[in-house]
Protein backbone atom coordinates (compact mmCIF):
# COMPACT_ATOMS: atom_id res chain seq x y z
CA UNK A 1 0.00 0.00 0.00
CA UNK A 2 1.30 3.44 -0.96
CA UNK A 3 2.54 5.63 1.91
CA UNK A 4 0.43 8.60 0.80
CA UNK A 5 -2.67 6.38 0.66
CA UNK A 6 -2.11 4.88 4.10
CA UNK A 7 -1.48 8.31 5.65
CA UNK A 8 -4.77 9.55 4.18
CA UNK A 9 -6.60 6.35 5.19
CA UNK A 10 -5.67 6.62 8.88
CA UNK A 11 -6.05 10.39 9.03
CA UNK A 12 -2.34 10.97 9.60
CA UNK A 13 0.22 13.54 8.48
CA UNK A 14 3.44 12.47 6.76
CA UNK A 15 6.18 14.37 8.61
CA UNK A 16 9.09 13.71 6.24
CA UNK A 17 9.93 12.80 2.63
CA UNK A 18 10.91 9.13 2.87
CA UNK A 19 12.83 7.15 0.25
CA UNK A 20 10.38 4.28 0.45
CA UNK A 21 7.01 4.73 -1.26
CA UNK A 22 4.94 1.85 0.10
CA UNK A 23 4.58 -0.59 2.98
CA UNK A 24 3.87 -4.32 2.78
CA UNK A 25 2.43 -5.08 6.21
CA UNK A 26 1.32 -3.80 9.61
CA UNK A 27 2.58 -4.39 13.13
CA UNK A 28 1.70 -3.24 16.65
CA UNK A 29 4.59 -4.98 18.44
CA UNK A 30 8.19 -3.96 17.74
CA UNK A 31 9.54 -7.46 18.39
CA UNK A 32 7.30 -8.82 15.59
CA UNK A 33 8.07 -6.14 13.01
CA UNK A 34 9.13 -7.50 9.62
CA UNK A 35 10.88 -5.69 6.81
CA UNK A 36 8.35 -3.46 5.08
CA UNK A 37 5.90 -3.16 8.00
CA UNK A 38 4.14 -0.02 9.14
CA UNK A 39 4.60 0.08 12.92
CA UNK A 40 1.96 1.62 15.18
CA UNK A 41 3.92 2.99 18.14
CA UNK A 42 1.50 2.21 20.96
CA UNK A 43 4.61 2.24 23.16
CA UNK A 44 7.03 4.92 21.93
CA UNK A 45 9.92 3.21 23.69
CA UNK A 46 9.64 0.45 21.07
CA UNK A 47 10.21 2.78 18.10
CA UNK A 48 13.98 2.24 18.00
CA UNK A 49 13.51 -1.53 18.04
CA UNK A 50 10.95 -1.30 15.23
CA UNK A 51 13.41 0.76 13.15
CA UNK A 52 16.16 -1.79 13.80
CA UNK A 53 13.81 -4.53 12.65
CA UNK A 54 13.48 -2.65 9.35
CA UNK A 55 10.02 -1.13 9.66
CA UNK A 56 9.24 0.99 6.59
CA UNK A 57 7.08 3.41 8.55
CA UNK A 58 6.24 4.61 12.05
CA UNK A 59 2.79 5.85 13.10
CA UNK A 60 2.86 7.89 16.29
CA UNK A 61 0.91 10.48 18.23
CA UNK A 62 2.30 13.50 20.06
CA UNK A 63 6.01 13.91 19.45
CA UNK A 64 8.65 11.46 18.25
CA UNK A 65 12.28 11.91 17.22
CA UNK A 66 12.78 11.12 13.53
CA UNK A 67 15.84 8.88 13.65
CA UNK A 68 15.76 7.56 10.08
CA UNK A 69 14.68 9.80 7.20
CA UNK A 70 14.66 6.87 4.77
CA UNK A 71 11.45 5.51 6.25
CA UNK A 72 8.03 7.17 6.68
CA UNK A 73 7.02 8.96 9.87
CA UNK A 74 3.28 9.53 10.15
CA UNK A 75 1.84 11.64 12.94
CA UNK A 76 -1.76 11.12 14.05
CA UNK A 77 -3.94 12.84 16.62
CA UNK A 78 -4.96 9.46 18.05
CA UNK A 79 -3.35 6.07 17.47
CA UNK A 80 -6.58 4.35 18.49
CA UNK A 81 -8.61 6.31 15.94
CA UNK A 82 -5.98 5.61 13.30
CA UNK A 83 -6.17 1.88 14.06
CA UNK A 84 -9.98 2.06 14.02
CA UNK A 85 -9.92 3.58 10.52
CA UNK A 86 -7.52 0.87 9.41
CA UNK A 87 -9.75 -1.81 10.94
CA UNK A 88 -12.77 -0.39 9.12
CA UNK A 89 -10.80 -0.54 5.86
CA UNK A 90 -9.87 -4.20 6.45
CA UNK A 91 -13.50 -5.13 7.16
CA UNK A 92 -14.77 -3.42 4.02
CA UNK A 93 -11.93 -4.72 1.85
CA UNK A 94 -12.43 -8.30 3.09
CA UNK A 95 -16.23 -8.00 2.83
CA UNK A 96 -16.46 -9.49 6.32
CA UNK A 97 -19.93 -9.63 7.87
CA UNK A 98 -20.21 -8.16 11.37
CA UNK A 99 -22.32 -10.25 13.75
CA UNK A 100 -23.55 -9.01 17.11
CA UNK A 101 -23.78 -11.69 19.80
CA UNK A 102 -24.84 -11.07 23.39
CA UNK A 103 -22.19 -11.93 26.00
CA UNK A 104 -23.59 -15.44 26.65
CA UNK A 105 -23.93 -16.37 22.96
CA UNK A 106 -20.48 -14.92 22.27
CA UNK A 107 -18.85 -17.21 24.85
CA UNK A 108 -20.79 -20.24 23.63
CA UNK A 109 -19.75 -19.47 20.05
CA UNK A 110 -16.08 -19.20 21.07
CA UNK A 111 -16.24 -22.66 22.64
CA UNK A 112 -18.00 -24.55 19.85
CA UNK A 113 -16.35 -22.80 16.89
CA UNK A 114 -14.41 -25.03 14.49
CA UNK A 115 -14.27 -22.63 11.57
CA UNK A 116 -11.42 -20.39 10.39
CA UNK A 117 -13.97 -18.18 8.66
CA UNK A 118 -15.21 -16.76 11.99
CA UNK A 119 -13.17 -14.28 14.01
CA UNK A 120 -13.92 -13.00 17.51
CA UNK A 121 -13.22 -9.35 18.26
CA UNK A 122 -12.24 -8.11 21.72
CA UNK A 123 -12.56 -4.54 23.02
CA UNK A 124 -9.02 -3.72 21.81
CA UNK A 125 -8.86 -1.99 18.43
CA UNK A 126 -5.17 -2.87 18.09
CA UNK A 127 -5.73 -6.57 18.83
CA UNK A 128 -8.61 -6.67 16.36
CA UNK A 129 -6.46 -5.08 13.66
CA UNK A 130 -3.77 -7.71 14.19
CA UNK A 131 -6.31 -10.53 14.06
CA UNK A 132 -8.07 -9.36 10.92
CA UNK A 133 -4.83 -8.54 9.08
CA UNK A 134 -3.50 -12.05 9.78
CA UNK A 135 -6.83 -13.67 8.83
CA UNK A 136 -7.72 -12.02 5.53
CA UNK A 137 -10.10 -14.88 4.62
CA UNK A 138 -12.40 -14.05 7.53
CA UNK A 139 -16.04 -14.05 6.41
CA UNK A 140 -17.68 -13.33 9.77
CA UNK A 141 -16.60 -11.19 12.72
CA UNK A 142 -18.38 -11.73 16.05
CA UNK A 143 -18.63 -8.79 18.46
CA UNK A 144 -20.40 -8.68 21.84
CA UNK A 145 -19.91 -4.96 22.53
CA UNK A 146 -22.61 -2.87 20.85
CA UNK A 147 -20.76 0.37 21.62
CA UNK A 148 -17.75 -0.94 19.71
CA UNK A 149 -19.94 -1.88 16.76
CA UNK A 150 -21.29 1.66 16.69
CA UNK A 151 -17.77 3.12 16.52
CA UNK A 152 -17.17 1.07 13.35
CA UNK A 153 -20.15 2.75 11.65
CA UNK A 154 -20.73 -0.34 9.51
CA UNK A 155 -23.75 -2.56 8.94
CA UNK A 156 -24.14 -5.54 11.24
CA UNK A 157 -26.47 -8.49 11.72
CA UNK A 158 -28.13 -10.07 14.75
CA UNK A 159 -28.65 -13.84 14.26
CA UNK A 160 -32.30 -14.90 14.34
CA UNK A 161 -32.24 -18.57 13.31
CA UNK A 162 -33.26 -20.90 16.14
CA UNK A 163 -31.86 -24.44 16.15
CA UNK A 164 -34.10 -27.36 17.09
CA UNK A 165 -32.64 -28.54 20.36
CA UNK A 166 -34.61 -30.68 22.82
CA UNK A 167 -33.97 -30.54 26.56
CA UNK A 168 -34.09 -34.02 28.10
CA UNK A 169 -33.21 -33.10 31.68
CA UNK A 170 -32.01 -30.02 33.51
CA UNK A 171 -31.05 -28.67 36.91
CA UNK A 172 -30.19 -25.09 37.89
CA UNK A 173 -26.65 -25.48 36.57
CA UNK A 174 -26.68 -28.36 34.08
CA UNK A 175 -28.56 -29.27 30.93
CA UNK A 176 -28.84 -32.57 29.07
CA UNK A 177 -30.21 -32.19 25.56
CA UNK A 178 -30.69 -33.84 22.19
CA UNK A 179 -29.46 -32.25 18.98
CA UNK A 180 -29.71 -33.93 15.57
CA UNK A 181 -30.11 -37.35 17.20
CA UNK A 182 -26.99 -36.91 19.35
CA UNK A 183 -27.31 -36.82 23.15
CA UNK A 184 -25.29 -34.32 25.16
CA UNK A 185 -25.40 -35.16 28.86
CA UNK A 186 -24.70 -33.01 31.93
CA UNK A 187 -23.45 -29.98 30.01
CA UNK A 188 -22.65 -27.31 32.59
CA UNK A 189 -24.74 -24.57 31.10
CA UNK A 190 -27.88 -23.45 32.89
CA UNK A 191 -31.25 -23.97 31.15
CA UNK A 192 -31.61 -20.25 31.79
CA UNK A 193 -29.43 -19.79 28.69
CA UNK A 194 -30.95 -22.45 26.45
CA UNK A 195 -32.33 -19.82 24.06
CA UNK A 196 -28.85 -18.32 23.66
CA UNK A 197 -27.55 -21.81 22.89
CA UNK A 198 -30.28 -22.40 20.28
CA UNK A 199 -29.60 -19.05 18.61
CA UNK A 200 -25.84 -19.64 18.54
CA UNK A 201 -26.18 -23.11 17.01
CA UNK A 202 -28.72 -21.70 14.56
CA UNK A 203 -26.24 -19.02 13.51
CA UNK A 204 -23.51 -21.60 12.82
CA UNK A 205 -25.87 -23.82 10.82
CA UNK A 206 -27.37 -20.95 8.85
CA UNK A 207 -23.91 -19.55 8.04
CA UNK A 208 -22.44 -22.94 7.11
CA UNK A 209 -19.74 -22.59 9.77
CA UNK A 210 -18.14 -25.69 11.27
CA UNK A 211 -18.82 -26.25 14.98
CA UNK A 212 -18.78 -28.97 17.63
CA UNK A 213 -21.13 -29.10 20.61
CA UNK A 214 -18.77 -31.65 22.16
CA UNK A 215 -16.45 -28.74 22.94
CA UNK A 216 -19.12 -26.99 24.98
CA UNK A 217 -18.31 -26.79 28.70
CA UNK A 218 -19.09 -24.44 31.57
CA UNK A 219 -19.24 -20.72 30.86
CA UNK A 220 -18.52 -17.68 33.02
CA UNK A 221 -22.21 -16.76 33.30
CA UNK A 222 -24.25 -18.07 36.24
CA UNK A 223 -21.23 -20.18 37.17
CA UNK A 224 -21.64 -22.32 40.32
CA UNK A 225 -18.92 -22.82 42.94
CA UNK A 226 -19.98 -25.33 45.57
CA UNK A 227 -18.49 -24.49 48.98
CA UNK A 228 -18.43 -25.82 52.53
CA UNK A 229 -19.40 -23.77 55.58
CA UNK A 230 -15.92 -22.18 55.61
CA UNK A 231 -16.25 -21.12 51.95
CA UNK A 232 -13.73 -23.68 50.73
CA UNK A 233 -14.47 -24.93 47.21
CA UNK A 234 -15.73 -28.53 47.12
CA UNK A 235 -16.62 -30.93 44.32
CA UNK A 236 -19.50 -30.00 42.04
CA UNK A 237 -22.82 -30.95 43.63
CA UNK A 238 -21.28 -31.97 46.97
CA UNK A 239 -22.71 -29.13 49.06
CA UNK A 240 -25.97 -27.28 49.64
CA UNK A 241 -24.11 -23.95 49.59
CA UNK A 242 -23.28 -22.45 46.21
CA UNK A 243 -21.57 -19.22 45.22
CA UNK A 244 -22.86 -18.30 41.76
CA UNK A 245 -20.65 -15.81 39.93
CA UNK A 246 -21.78 -13.67 37.02
CA UNK A 247 -19.27 -11.80 34.86
CA UNK A 248 -21.95 -9.59 33.29
CA UNK A 249 -23.81 -7.61 36.01
CA UNK A 250 -26.61 -6.69 33.59
CA UNK A 251 -27.74 -10.35 33.75
CA UNK A 252 -28.17 -10.28 37.52
CA UNK A 253 -31.88 -9.40 37.51
CA UNK A 254 -32.71 -12.15 35.01
CA UNK A 255 -30.76 -14.69 37.06
CA UNK A 256 -32.39 -13.57 40.32
CA UNK A 257 -35.85 -14.19 38.84
CA UNK A 258 -34.69 -17.60 37.59
CA UNK A 259 -33.47 -18.68 41.03
CA UNK A 260 -36.59 -17.37 42.76
CA UNK A 261 -38.80 -19.32 40.35
CA UNK A 262 -36.87 -22.59 40.30
CA UNK A 263 -35.56 -22.77 43.88
CA UNK A 264 -38.42 -21.45 46.01
CA UNK A 265 -37.22 -23.56 48.95
CA UNK A 266 -33.73 -22.07 49.04
CA UNK A 267 -32.30 -19.21 51.08
CA UNK A 268 -30.73 -16.70 48.71
CA UNK A 269 -28.56 -13.62 48.86
CA UNK A 270 -27.70 -11.32 45.95
CA UNK A 271 -24.38 -9.46 46.10
CA UNK A 272 -22.49 -7.05 43.88
CA UNK A 273 -19.34 -4.98 44.08
CA UNK A 274 -20.10 -1.33 44.77
CA UNK A 275 -18.56 -0.41 41.39
CA UNK A 276 -21.68 -1.85 39.77
CA UNK A 277 -24.13 0.47 41.57
CA UNK A 278 -24.57 2.69 38.53
CA UNK A 279 -25.40 -0.34 36.38
CA UNK A 280 -27.66 -2.12 38.86
CA UNK A 281 -29.19 0.86 40.63
CA UNK A 282 -29.74 1.15 44.34
CA UNK A 283 -31.89 -1.99 44.61
CA UNK A 284 -32.69 -2.98 48.19
CA UNK A 285 -32.50 -6.64 47.18
CA UNK A 286 -28.78 -6.32 46.48
CA UNK A 287 -26.01 -6.26 49.08
CA UNK A 288 -22.99 -4.27 47.97
CA UNK A 289 -19.39 -4.92 49.02
CA UNK A 290 -16.08 -3.14 48.45
CA UNK A 291 -13.57 -5.98 48.75
CA UNK A 292 -13.29 -9.77 48.87
CA UNK A 293 -12.74 -9.47 52.61
CA UNK A 294 -16.04 -7.68 53.02
CA UNK A 295 -17.73 -10.19 50.72
CA UNK A 296 -16.40 -13.11 52.78
CA UNK A 297 -17.64 -11.47 55.99
CA UNK A 298 -21.13 -11.06 54.55
CA UNK A 299 -21.23 -14.67 53.39
CA UNK A 300 -19.95 -15.96 56.76
CA UNK A 301 -22.70 -14.10 58.61
CA UNK A 302 -25.56 -15.05 56.30
CA UNK A 303 -27.46 -18.30 56.08
CA UNK A 304 -27.86 -19.14 52.42
CA UNK A 305 -28.05 -21.92 49.87
CA UNK A 306 -27.37 -19.73 46.88
CA UNK A 307 -25.28 -16.55 46.81
CA UNK A 308 -25.48 -14.83 43.44
CA UNK A 309 -22.46 -12.55 43.02
CA UNK A 310 -21.88 -9.94 40.32
CA UNK A 311 -18.23 -10.51 39.46
CA UNK A 312 -16.16 -13.65 38.93
CA UNK A 313 -13.11 -13.04 41.10
CA UNK A 314 -13.63 -15.21 44.18
CA UNK A 315 -10.37 -17.09 43.78
CA UNK A 316 -9.00 -15.94 47.13
CA UNK A 317 -12.20 -15.54 49.10
CA UNK A 318 -11.34 -18.43 51.44
CA UNK A 319 -8.29 -16.45 52.52
CA UNK A 320 -10.64 -13.99 54.20
CA UNK A 321 -13.06 -16.54 55.61
CA UNK A 322 -13.13 -17.20 59.33
CA UNK A 323 -11.57 -20.54 60.17
CA UNK A 324 -12.76 -22.64 63.12
CA UNK A 325 -10.55 -22.49 66.20
CA UNK A 326 -8.78 -25.80 66.67
CA UNK A 327 -9.05 -27.19 70.23
CA UNK A 328 -5.81 -27.76 72.15
CA UNK A 329 -4.86 -29.77 75.20
CA UNK A 330 -3.87 -26.62 77.07
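^ C-alpha coordinates above, recovered residues below v
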Amino acid sequence: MKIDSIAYLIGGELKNSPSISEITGFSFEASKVKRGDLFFAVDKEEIDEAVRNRAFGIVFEGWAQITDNEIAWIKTGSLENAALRLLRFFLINNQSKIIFLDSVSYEIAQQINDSKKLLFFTDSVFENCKKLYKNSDTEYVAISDMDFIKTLSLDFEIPKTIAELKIIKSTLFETSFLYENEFFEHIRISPLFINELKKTVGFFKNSALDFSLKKLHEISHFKPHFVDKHLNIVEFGKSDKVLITESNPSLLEKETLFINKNATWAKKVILAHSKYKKILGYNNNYLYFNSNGELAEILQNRKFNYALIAGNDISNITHFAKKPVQPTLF
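The mean pLDDT is 92.
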